[in-house]
Design goal:
The protein is built from seven helices and twelve strands. It is of the alpha/beta class. The protein is globular, with a radius of gyration of 19 Å.
């Protein structure tokens, strides 16, 4: 884990997210890229003036943010960028060789009952960048136990498990695997890929209408301090495929970090 991209939204949640990222990066001796993407397109004739002003203001905001946290000697490069959110993130991942994206679940402008807001939901829904969703005001602690929830252990894409493996090896964490048998279950779904099987400490399965519901009904028995899920077109965050928001009442394990891996197929 060498390069971590921290995406800043509302300044109200930014300090806690950045401090968590610093504490996390410090254990890996990783570099942080602190970025705020301004997804706006001013009208012709005012774009340069408005854009320059906005960049300057946000960079001042980022400077103040950096002054408010304990940087612990971690190398942090901050940047204000104007551009379309998803394409900019994908470019940054490629150019900077980003290993992990860290985001807050929502901005302070979003109602308290919302878990994933429009921006964070859009990132999770529309990118394949490995992402760690850090709950508001969550204080970093070494990761000791991880719950990986899937509806299929049939992994076809190479490198998908790499972020999970890095975290496990670094923190010497144990991995519990929960496979959820949904109505669309196929026999091959529970055939563990050899790479995954080598990582698993405990394996169990449940039946549920969705992976999402299966996790909500069972996660407390595992006492994990990190939940790991994978992106699928109709996967864990199913609701995100209809809307970019998801409510806390629908995701009541929102008090732990969630590692979202790229699609496995």
């Amino acid at each position: 884990m060498r390069n971590i991209l921290v995406l800043i939204g509302s300044s109200g949640n930014a300090k806690g997210l950045l401090q968590y990222a610093i504490d996390f990066a410090h254990t890996f001796n990783a570099k942080i890229y602190l970025v705020k993407i301004n997804d706006i397109y001013p009208h012709s004739g005012t774009s340069v003036k408005v854009g320059n002003y906005l960049v300057d203001e946000v960079e001042k905001e980022l400077e103040l943010l950096l002054e408010s946290v304990d940087q612990k000697g971690v190398e942090i490069i901050s940047k204000s960028i104007i551009g379309e959110l998803i394409s900019t993130l994908e470019t940054l991942q490629s150019d900077l060789q980003i290993d992990l994206l860290m985001i807050a679940p929502r901005t302070t402008s979003i109602k308290e009952e919302v878990y994933l807001g429009q921006t964070s939901g859009k990132v999770i829904k529309q990118t394949q960048i490995p992402a760690l969703i850090v709950p508001e005001n969550y204080v970093f602690e070494p990761i000791s136990k991880i719950l990986l929830a899937m509806k299929s252990a049939n992994i076809k894409k190479e490198g998908v498990l790499e972020p999970l493996k890095l975290v496990m090896e670094h923190f010497n964490a144990k991995l519990d695997l929960l496979l959820v048998k949904t109505p669309t279950y196929k026999e091959a779904d529970f055939n563990l890929h050899p790479e995954l099987e080598s990582l698993v400490h405990q394996f169990s399965h449940v039946e549920s209408p969705t992976t999402f519901q299966g996790v909500l009904e069972n996660y407390q028995t595992y006492q994990a301090n990190l939940l790991c899920v994978v992106r699928r077109k109709r996967g864990f965050f199913t609701k995100l495929w209809e809307s970019n928001t998801i409510l806390k009442k629908d995701f009541h394990c929102s008090t732990m970090p969630v590692l979202v891996l790229s699609g496995i197929q």
